[in-house]
User: Which sequence fits this backbone?
C-alpha cells in the first residue's frame, strides 16, 4: 500500500492548532496535494491511486465537507458496510491520512490497520487458460487487450514500466525498465515485436508509448484490469487470476521451468563428459 515517506515541501500549508469545530475540506486543496505529490516523480500508478481514493473521500464527507474527530472512524465503518474488503478500506484511509498530513491536521488521522481474514492462496493462471484468453480476445476483436495480455505474459514487464514500451524500444527489441530503482533490460520477443509494430502503424502511433489511455495518460493497474474485464468474463475467468499480476506470474513460472530444464540438460551433459574422461584416463579400481 502506498505511503507518503517524505514531506511535500513546496507550497505546503503550515500546521494548524487543533480545532474542536473541525476543518472544512475543499476540492482545490485535494488538487494541490495531488499536484505537489506528482512533483515527487513517484510511480505513475501511485498518483492515480491517491486521486481515486481522495475523490471518494471528498464525496463521502458530511454535507458541510468538514472533517472532525471521529470522521474517519465513521468513514471506515461506511466503507465496510458498502462491501469493501479490509485491505481496500486500509488503502482509502492511507490516502486520507496522507492528505491530512499535507494540510497540517494529523489530529484527524485514523491510526491502525484492519486485518484481512486469511484466505487460501489463489491458484495461478495456467498456460491453457492464457491461450483461451488470447483466443477469446481475438474472437472479440480486442487487439489492444490481446497485446496487453501478451506483453505481461511473454515479457514479465511491470505495470509501472509499461510506458517504457515505446515504438522506438520495440523497434530495438529492448526495453529499459526501472525508473527510480535498479534498471533492468527486457527483451521483446520477435513474434510480439512484429505484432506490436503492426498495431502501432495501423493506429498511427509513430513514436512514444504504444499503450496509453484515451486521454493520453500512462495506464495504471485498475485501468488495465478494467479493459481486460470483458474478455475475462467472456472467457469465464473472473476469479481474479487473469490480470497483469497473474499474467506476470505466469511468465515467471514458465521462465523458471525453462531455466530448470536448461540447468538439468547442462548437468547431464557435464556428467556424460566426465564419464568419457573417466573411461579415457580414470584410475583403475
Assistant:
Amino acid at each position: 500500500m502506498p505511503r507518503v515517506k517524505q514531506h511535500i515541501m513546496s507550497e505546503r500549508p503550515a500546521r494548524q492548532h487543533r480545532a474542536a469545530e473541525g476543518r472544512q475540506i475543499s476540492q482545490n486543496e485535494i488538487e494541490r496535494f495531488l499536484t505537489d505529490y506528482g512533483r515527487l516523480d513517484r510511480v505513475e500508478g501511485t498518483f492515480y491511486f491517491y486521486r481515486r481514493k481522495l475523490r471518494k473521500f471528498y464525496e463521502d464527507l458530511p454535507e458541510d465537507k468538514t472533517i472532525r474527530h471521529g470522521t474517519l472512524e465513521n468513514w471506515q465503518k461506511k466503507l465496510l458496510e458498502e462491501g469493501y474488503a479490509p485491505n481496500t478500506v486500509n488503502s482509502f484511509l492511507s490516502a486520507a491520512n496522507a492528505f491530512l498530513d499535507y494540510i497540517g491536521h494529523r489530529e484527524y488521522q485514523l491510526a491502525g490497520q484492519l486485518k484481512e481474514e486469511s484466505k487460501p492462496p489463489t491458484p495461478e493462471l495456467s498456460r491453457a487458460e492464457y491461450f483461451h484468453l488470447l483466443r477469446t480476445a481475438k474472437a472479440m476483436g480486442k487487439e489492444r487487450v490481446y497485446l496487453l495480455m501478451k506483453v505481461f505474459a511473454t515479457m514479465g514487464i511491470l505495470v509501472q514500466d509499461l510506458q517504457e514500451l515505446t515504438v522506438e524500444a520495440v523497434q530495438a527489441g529492448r526495453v529499459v525498465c526501472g525508473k527510480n530503482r535498479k534498471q533492468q533490460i527486457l527483451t521483446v520477443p520477435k513474434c510480439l515485436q512484429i505484432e506490436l509494430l503492426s498495431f502501432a502503424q495501423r493506429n498511427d502511433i509513430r513514436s512514444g508509448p504504444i499503450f496509453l489511455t484515451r486521454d493520453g495518460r500512462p495506464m495504471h493497474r485498475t485501468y488495465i484490469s478494467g479493459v481486460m474485464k470483458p474478455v475475462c468474463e467472456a472467457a469465464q475467468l473472473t476469479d481474479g487470476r487473469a490480470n497483469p499480476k497473474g499474467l506476470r506470474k505466469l511468465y515467471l513460472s514458465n521462465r523458471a521451468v525453462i531455466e530448470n530444464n536448461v540447468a538439468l540438460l547442462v548437468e547431464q551433459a557435464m556428467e556424460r563428459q566426465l564419464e568419457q574422461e573417466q573411461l579415457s584416463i580414470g584410475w583403475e579400481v
